[in-house]
């Protein structure tokens, strides 16, 4: 019987992406992206960061962005955020937005706490989209607990308002395209992200995010069940091997018993057990392969702030 084993992949902190879980052979990554805590949007601070009058005089008051509670929106360096809008930019279809997201390199930039965080990613994407002639909004949101987050929005001509989050990670990762995501926001619910290809199928219905998350949970449950079956199989097979070894030792010590009827019957029983174990293992392999395929389709799971969203604000 061909040797085949599940492989337990160790947790590896690769920037904000971690790979863990139990995989069928060949091992598959079960990536989980953990959103860095934003240090930049200041949407959830009790007071606005101190900004000197001399600094404010360097900015056009009409271009300063104000949050829902009257604060000036600042970046991770506590400098006022100013968007570079293009008067000629227009709303475009989702396909054009997705093409732009795929080809821009904002997601390749490193996340640097206190210097380049979610608000810088969002502002950079906004300005790049406007330069490309695509109307884009900066989005800020608050959570019931934790620090706020910044991302982007596009008013597409065919799918309506679509949120996009290209916030990258703190270290290089194998596939930075996974940082290009469709975002799902619903006040009172947790914030969600899906890989671009999966989210673009249904980009502005929160139910799409919930559906994909249910697939993750269901697949993970199946994986856990198969892992339990694998461990049971290994335990049972170890006992079976001991049984076979004892039988072989007995025959080696008593060759004359080889032709005995009860020995032949016992040999047949052991062979039947061996076939049963092979069948069980093949079934485990088959189902593990299907789960592996499903995980590959789902690509990656993003571990966001689980606290419900309380406020959402857009600046065009």
Structural topology:
Layout: E1 7-14, E2 17-23, E3 31-34, H1 53-56, H2 94-103, H3 118-131, E4 137-143, E5 149-156, E6 160-165, E7 181-184, E8 192-195, H4 196-199, H5 206-253, H6 261-298, E9 301-303, E10 309-315
Parallel strand pairs: 3-9
Antiparallel strand pairs: 1-2, 2-3, 4-5, 4-10, 5-6, 6-7, 7-8
Helix pairs in contact: 5-6
Residue share in helix: 25-40%
**Form type:** elongated
Task: Give unreliable regions as ranges.
Answer: 1-47
Tell me how many strands there are. 10
Order of helices and strands: EEEHHHEEEEEHHHEE
Total number of distinct structural domains:
2
**Which structural class do you get from the secondary structure elements?**
alpha+beta
Work out the strand percent.
Answer: 15-25%
What is the strand arrangement across the widest sheet?
A: 8-7-6-5-4-10
Descriptive overview:
With 316 residues, this protein is α+β, with helices and mostly antiparallel strands. It folds into two domains: 32-213 and 307-315, no CATH class; 215-298. It is 37% helix and 18% strand. It contains six helices and ten strands, in the order E-E-E-H-H-H-E-E-E-E-E-H-H-H-E-E. It has a six-stranded antiparallel sheet with strand order 8-7-6-5-4-10. The protein has a four-stranded mixed sheet with strand order 1-2-3-9. The radius of gyration is 28 Å and the shape is elongated.
